[in-house]
Every structure is written in C-alpha cells, then in structure tokens.
Specification:
The complex is a heterodimer of chains A (about 200) and B (about 350).
Chain A lengths: L6 H6 L24 E4 L9 H5 L5 E4 L4 E4 L9 H5 L5 E4 L12 E4 L26 E3 L9 H16 L1 H14 L2 H14 L1
Antiparallel strand pairs in A: 1-4, 2-3, 3-5, 5-6
Chain B lengths: L4 E5 L11 E7 L2 E8 L19 H5 L7 H16 L5 H29 L3 H22 L8 E2 L2 E2 L5 H27 L1 H7 L7 H6 L4 H5 L31 H24 L19 E8 L2 E8 L8 E5 L1 H13 L7 H7 L4 H5 L1
Antiparallel strand pairs in B: 1-2, 2-3, 4-5, 6-7, 7-8
The chains are: A alpha+beta (about 200), B alpha+beta (about 350).
Bound molecules: iron/sulfur cluster (2 copies).
C-alpha cells in the first residue's frame, strides 16, 4: 500500500483541457431533446383550456375572452405534461432556457380566431376578435414598464364579455371552477368579483 | 474525568448537504449519545396528493428528492399502476430500470465525492464529481433533464432510448471504468483515507438487523437485503443478482459497498440494454383508482429500501400517499453508530448513512 494513489490521475489532469467551460462567455451545446421552455403554435390552439387544467404548477392561463394563452415561465417546472395533454399538439417543449429577469413577466400569445362551424361560432365572443387571416403572433414577454398593460386589458375585456353574456359565461365558469382545486377556484371567484 | 457537555451539530454544517440537527452529548471528546432532530425542510408533499390528481403527482413525487428523483417517480408510478391494475409494457419496465440504475451510479459517485470532501480530500472530491458529469450528460441527452427528468408517467414512460443511445450509455460507462477504478483505489487503499474510515462508526450486524436498517448502510453490516433481489419489474429478468455485502460494519465498509454497487449497476445496465425488448413504451390509463383500493410497493433507492403506500377514493385524487424513505429508517442506526466515537469522526459517520433529509421530511 503506497501513498498518493491519485497521482497518475491528478498529474494527468495538468495536461488536459479543463472540464469546465468559461461560463457565460462559453456555454455547453444543448441537446435536441432538452427541456428548456414551452412554446405554443397559436395557429392550431383551440383555447380548450386543457393545458391550464392539467399543469401541476398552475402556470398556464387560457383566456377565451381575450383569445390569449399565457404562461409564467418562472413558475413552469418544464415537466412537459401540458405538451402531452394538448389535443391539438399545439404545445412543444424546446431547448433554450428562459433567461433570468428582474420582473416575473408572463409570456403571452394571442390566438387568432379560426373559421368555425356556424353552430359553434358564438362560443368565443371575444370583444375584439382578431382577423382570421392575421398572422399568428407570439407576444414576447412585456418589458417591465408596460408590464401591467396586458393584465389591465384582459380585465377590461373580461368585464366587457361578462356584460355581453353573463349567464352563459357563468355556467361555463362554474363547470371549470368545479374542476379546479378549492383554493384556485376561490381566487378566480375573487378576481371575477373585483372585475365586476 | 471530564464534564459532560452538549455540542450542537447542524442544521448548518459544512458536511451536511441538508439540514439535520444532532445534539451530541460529549465527555472527553467522546460522544456518549447523539440525539437527532429533523423538521427543518418539511414541505407537506404527502398532503399535496389531495390537491394534485394522480397524474400530476408524478411530478410532485419526483421533487421529493433531488438525487433519487427518478426513483421516486418510478416508485410512485408503480404504486399507482398496482392500485389501478395496470400492466405496463416490458420495454417501459426495462427503460425505467436502466434510468434508475444510472441514477444510482450518479448518486453513489456524488456520495463518494461528498465523503472525500468530509475527510478533507479535495482533489478526490473533484475527480468524483467530474465523472458524475458524464452520467448527467447521458441523462440530459435521453430525458431532457439533468437531475429531474419527468419521463415517468402512470402507465409507462414518455421517452424511448433508441439503440444508438443505449450503445452510447455502454460506451460512456465503459469509458469511465478506468478512471473510476483509480478513484476507488484511492478510497480503499490510500492510508490517509483508511485512517479516517477504518473501524470508525461500527454498527454491528445484530444492531443493523434489530433496527431494520436498509440500503448500503445495512449491507455494510452484512444484512443480506436488497429490494432488487425480489425481482420486481425488469430486475426479475436479470440472469443473476447478488447484493453486495461487507462484514466490516464500519465507515470503510460503507464506502466499499457503494463503490462496488456502481460497478454492479454498470453491469445491470449493460445486461438490460443487450436484451431490451421492442414494443410500446406506455399504455393508456383511463379512469381513477377505485374507492377504498389500496396498494403498496417497495423500491431500492440508492440509499436503501423505500416503501410506498397509496389509497384511492374513487376520484382522480388519492386519499393518502405515504412514503417511508430509507433515511428515516437509517437515522436510528446512525444514532447507535455515533455512540462512543470521537467528536472529529461525527461528520464522517453522519455522512456514511448518506442522509437525505428532504426525502425524509417530504
Ligand atoms: S394549447 Fe392545446 S391544450 Fe392548451 S388551450 Fe390550446 S389547444 Fe387546448
Ligand atoms: S411544462 Fe409543466 S409546469 Fe410547465 S406549463 Fe407545462 S404543465 Fe405547466
């Protein structure tokens, strides 16, 4: 038994390239299947809200009234469950991490209205429906200055649509609330109350 | 004859990756008694099972612990599959075991590094963690995550490992063998390491039996028990499985057992990847666990046997989910092993049970 058993390895590493990289100047390549962030293809999304219901961290919000799909990348745990439940395969998990920010902004995507069968046409009565031929638009996280804007717009839109068809939305909401946990249901109720 | 005094150890201590508090009753630098106390990182995850449905809870289960993350998601999913009577495809079973063994390798190498750090051998620590990176890169390529993978679902797995990736697994594992054997040689034969571990923190085989110790901690005290020998899932298809035992009962034996288990896991991965069957990787699971249904399951985590219990109530939310983790079992043995040791050896002994306090407190 001799001392310095690690000699060969330690001596050898003097002449090898370092194992570490000079982060952040240099970064490691990201493999194709890396779970980095969630992206939505707004052209196929039908705003069904399944992703919102299945997300374990409740970080997705699907708002039919404003035709928006949004997610909080700081709450997302990259589990990919929403990707597997989406019936239209609109969501995908792609490499590339969401960069750090001083404000916990949401990523908001506006879903253009699609040509629908006449029977279902009145279901999504967004106050300002986007044109069907308008190109799909993914809104990048808002800058901190106008950060509150989408939220305010959403609230106004919600109030407007509530006035338009209070009864229908209530029934729809009730069904949704029943599926939520008590806590989040209470939160939604409180938000609606405030909106009124 | 000195005077008895109490030295607090932890919850914040350089050797502890996680918060554990010990009251050491000390006389003349010798520990007479160690009273462990936990409760610093309780997160109430078992209760969450009533708020997240059984599919969502897979992601909660794997966040119980950062190191045996895959094991917890696998153990939980297996429990729910038993609860609902779901049989998963053979290929999914194999894939789960391959990933699970790979996480055992990463966990044991991580632990060897921490042990080296505990007795002050910095370069050994660095070399261990350098090797561990290779394993993490394999995970990153096949699952998309380095530590938390989110590839297990109730009914199977989300991602497949194709032939070329399996070959890469074996290639990388073969590649680290040489460096790994040099590291193990340093652990087992270098006098400076031996002096710190040989004959330190002895837990007799009888005590280990009586206190129901589990995992490498028990096997180092010659307790012939490893859940893998029950042959659950793809473990049943192994041509031969013998738990790795040692009769030394001390810190050295615990290091020896873990060091050998890494090689054993490499062999298991090699064998399973050679005979992995083709086919589906998941079956659809419909419905909810029946009212009053109960199921339990055991799984060999890197730290030892973990026990899972689930109870359904007819909805997609479970009534109860209980996990008994290896560390909560091993804390009793640790208190016994600490009796009569030197104060300077306490950190080494605490580390050799590979404590995972986050697991224990959930
Ligand atoms: S992304 Fe998919 S699941 Fe989510 S609302 Fe759109 S269609 Fe539904
Ligand atoms: S990846 Fe998981 S946490 Fe992130 S949005 Fe999808 S379901 Fe929610």
């Amino acid at each position: 038994m001799g001392v310095f058993k690690l000699g060969k390895m330690t001596f050898g590493s003097l002449f090898k390239k370092p194992e570490t990289v000079l982060y952040p100047i240099e970064t490691k390549p990201q493999p194709a299947g890396l779970k980095g962030h969630i992206e939505i293809d707004v052209s196929t999304c039908i705003l069904c809200g399944l992703c919102e219901k299945s997300c374990p961290t409740d970080c997705i919000t699907v708002d039919k009234a404003t035709s928006t799909w949004s997610t909080n990348p700081f709450a997302c745990i990259q589990c990919g469950y929403c990707v597997t439940v989406c019936p239209k395969k609109s969501l995908s998990m792609l490499p590339g991490y969401h960069v750090a920010n001083t404000v916990k902004d949401r990523v908001v995507a506006t879903v253009p209205e699609k040509a629908k069968p006449a029977k279902k046409a009145d279901v999504a009565k967004a106050p300002e429906p986007a044109k069907a031929d308008e190109p799909a638009k993914v809104v990048e996280p808002a800058k901190s200055a106008d950060h509150a804007k989408p939220a305010a717009e959403a609230k106004a839109a919600e109030a407007a649509s509530l006035e338009q068809g209070e009864l229908r939305i209530d029934a729809e909401l009730e069904a949704k609330l029943a599926l939520m946990s008590d806590e989040s249901a209470a939160k939604v109720r409180a938000a609606l109350q405030a909106g009124k | 004859m000195g005077q008895k005094s109490i030295i607090p150890f932890g919850p914040q201590h350089p050797v502890l990756p996680e918060p554990l508090h010990l009251d050491l009753v000390v006389e003349d630098e010798v520990v007479l008694e160690a009273i462990p106390q936990i409760g610093f990182v309780h997160r109430g995850l078992e209760r969450l099972v009533q708020k997240k449905d059984y599919n969502q809870f897979v992601y909660v289960a794997e966040r119980i612990c950062g190191i045996c993350a895959f094991g917890h998601s696998m153990g939980y999913a297996e429990t729910i599959e038993r609860l609902m009577g779901v049989e998963i495809p053979k290929r999914a079973e194999y894939l789960r075991v391959i990933w699970h063994e790979l996480s055992r390798i990463h966990s044991h190498i991580l632990w060897l590094g921490l042990a080296a750090d505990a007795f002050g051998h910095e370069s050994l620590f660095m070399h261990c963690w350098r090797l561990r990176e290779r394993i993490l890169d394999l995970f990153e390529k096949t699952t998309g995550g380095r530590v938390i993978f989110s590839v297990v679902k109730v009914g199977g797995v989300f991602r497949d490992i194709d032939k070329s990736q399996l070959d890469e697994f074996n290639h990388v594992l073969e590649g680290i063998k040489d460096e790994y054997s040099q590291i193990v040689n340093a652990f087992l034969n270098e006098p400076s390491v031996r002096n710190r571990t040989y004959g330190v923190g002895v837990l007799s085989s009888e005590d280990a039996h009586n206190l129901s110790m589990v995992g490498p901690f028990a096997r180092a005290s010659a307790v012939n028990y490893d859940v893998r020998m029950l042959g659950n899932g793809a473990y049943g298809d192994l041509s031969d499985f013998q738990p790795i035992l040692s009769n030394n009962c001390d810190c050295y034996a615990r290091m020896e057992v873990r060091a050998a288990e890494v090689v054993q896991s490499i062999e298991i991965i090699k064998e399973l990847s050679a005979r992995i069957p083709d086919g589906e990787i998941a079956v659809p699971v419909k419905g909810s666990p029946a009212f009053g249904s109960e199921a339990c399951n055991v799984l060999e985590q890197p730290r030892g046997e973990c026990y899972y219990f689930a109870k359904g109530n007819g909805t997609k939310y479970l009534d109860r989910m209980r996990m008994r983790t290896p560390t909560s079992q091993n804390l009793a043995g640790m208190a016994v092993a600490l009796k009569g040791c030197d104060v300077a050896d306490v950190n080494m002994i605490v580390l050799t049970i590979d404590p995972c306090i986050s697991c224990t407190e959930r």
